[in-house]
Every structure is written in structure tokens, then in C-alpha cells.
Amino acid sequence: MNELDRVIHEPARLQIVALLSGAEEADFLFLQRETGLTKGNLSSHLVKLEEVGYVGIEKTFRGKIPMTVLRLTAEGRAAFEGYRKAMNAMLKAAALSNAPVAAKLKTLSAPLDAASG
Amino acid sequence: MDVIALRDRPKMYLFSDGVAELAIGLFMLFYSASAWLLIRLPRDWGFGWGGVFAPGLVLGLSGFGMARGIKFLRERVTSPRGGYVAMKVTRYQRLYSGGAVVLMLAAYSLSNGRFSRALVCCAVFGCCYFFTGLTYRLPYMFLLAAFSALLGIWVCLKGKDLLSVMLWQGAMLAGAGGVKLLRFVQSHERA
Predict the structure, then answer these.
(1) Mind telling me how many Å the CA of A81 is from chain B's nearest CA?
(2) Phi, psi angle pair for A115, to nearest 5°
(3) pLDDT (tens digit, 9 = 90+) per residue, B165-180?
């Protein structure tokens, strides 16, 4: 658990980072629709991600329409990739150390142990 | 929370509002309808050099109209409802697109001989719809692929030309895009 990035591990921020990892950039409204978070909640999570350098926030215009564009920085992409790998490794280790699974494996291997013993 | 599904969600953005299908369908409709009309105009109307430049002009105007139309619909209608996403284009996607264009041009060149261009057009469209539906998991793309297959059968039976096929393909694609856009507008409130 110590290896997991605590900033990304938070569920709302994980959703945000996962969504941004699949695009070059996205606007605030897209993230709000996809995550289902309120404006205030989403804003506070984005500020947190910006503080650690994972997300870049740009306030711009598209024609005459103001929009807030967000993109994952190189650090953010690397952090997400690292988080994904760490989580996969942890889940694999947990599956192997899972007592019911271990017991099943033991019963399956018992005849082989008896034959070799 | 399915993180992989979330990561793939932005890819669906381009297909969520039907704007691309509507614009491409209208482009094909306009271009093929214009070409159909130009062919049927009396020769003594004095088109002369105009007839040489007209197809290029129509193509240019259609393309310009399509680009402006997409921009307008996305900025004014769909982005205020669903947001905005810019996709990164990977090297693999560039190679895939380039390869697809080469194959289509090769198919078009080959079709001058044994197989009619109309039939090849149906096959190319059908394959594009099918693989797009498979890649992005869009059921309506399979319907469009089935329609292309039916159109191909119609071409074989009735001996129809390329322009007729383009008209029908354009109409079907524009119709599908229009329905999708309407459903998107009805299901997404303006922010």
C-alpha cells in the first residue's frame, strides 16, 4: 500500500486522471459529465492535481465561449502508469496469497505430492 | 470503477453526437447530387471550361461546408451539452489511416477493370463501417455495414452506377447522424 500514489488513489481523482489519460485534453464540462461530480468538488480535486504537477489547467476561449481546458502533464501520465502497474502487482500478490485460492491449489496438488512422496 | 473503460471513454466522444456522420453524409449527398445534375445538364448550355473546373469546385465547396458545419455544430450545439475533448493521434493510428487510404485507392484503381466501382465502393464503405463498429463498439455501424451490403446486392442486380451508390450511402449516413444528433440534444441538457 505504501507504493501507491495517494494523490491518484483517491477515487474521484483516479477517475479524472483515467479520463484525461485517454485524451490529449478535455474541458471541465466533459469531466463533470463523465465523473458525475459537482462543480465545486471537481474544482477542488483539479486544484490538488495541479498542485502536484499532474494536471495542467488552461482558461481559454473557443470563439466567444469561455472554457477551461485540462490536460495530463508528462509527470501525470507517468504517475498514472506507475499507479496502474503498482495496483496490478498488488492485486496479483493478493490473489496468490488468497487463502481459499491457496487451499484449492493445495487440494489440486495433493495427488502429485503423494505420488512424488 | 473500471479504470480501463474510463481511459477509453474520450475515444467515444467523436461518435457520441452524430455530427461527424451527419456532416460526411451531407457532403456525400451534396457532391453526388451536384455531379448527377451536372452530368444531366444539356451540352449546349455552354459549360465548356466550366465543366472542367466544376467537379473540383463542387468538391472544394462541399468540403469547406462540411468543415464549417462540423465546427458550428460542435461549438454551438454539442460542446455546450457534452463538453470538449481533443484526442491524441498515435503513430499507430496514422499508419492505420494511411494504410486504409492506400487500400481504398488501390481498390478504386482495380475497379476500373473487372469489378464495377459502385460495387467496390459498397465493399469499402461496408468494411469501414464494420471495423469502426468493432473497434469502438457502436452497434449502429453494423447496421450501416449491413445497408452497404444490401446496396452492393442492389448494384449487382440492377447494374447501378457509382453516383447512385454515393447518393444512397450519403443519405443513410446523414440520416443516422441526424437521428444520433437529435437523441444527443434530447438527452444532454445545456450546461
Answers:
(1) 12
(2) -65, -40
(3) 888 899 999 999 999 9
Cell output for B144: 450501416
- Which pLDDT tens digit goes with each residue over B110-156? 666 555 778 888 888 898 899 888 888 888 899 999 999 998 888 88
Rg (chain B; Cα; Å):
19
For B55, residues 6+ apart whose C-beta sits below 8 A from its C-beta are B35, B38
Instruction: State the ipTM, two decimals.
Output: 0.73
CB neighbourhood size of A71 (10 A): 17
Q: Report H helices in chain A.
A: 6-9, 11-21, 28-35, 39-51, 74-96, 99-116
Domain at A6-108, CATH class: mainly alpha
pTM listed for this prediction: 0.76
Residue B13 to residue B78: CA distance in whole angstroms: 10
Of A19, A30, A34, the CB nearest to B84: A30
Inter-chain touch A63–B86, beta carbons under 8 Å = no
What SS3 class is residue B82?
Answer: helix
Question: Domain segments of chain A: what residues?
Answer: 6-108
